[in-house]
Amino acid sequence: MSNKTAETSTSSNIVLQCPQCKKPVHWNERYPHRPFCSKRCQQLDFGEWATEQNTIAGASVMAESDDWQED
Q: How many domains does the chain have?
């Protein structure tokens, strides 16, 4: 296998939008934080999940009888 073939097989033409800021993100090694465009966007997204600004809809997994209270 030649070097040119190796470069072609590892490069990608897939372009997505950053979920946070909507900038284009090429799906390759140049963007190590993909699908985000930067570490900043990645951390902002994580913060939204950590503070429960983002949630996945569904029934609560904690039953009222579990003697669990949120402070």
A: 1
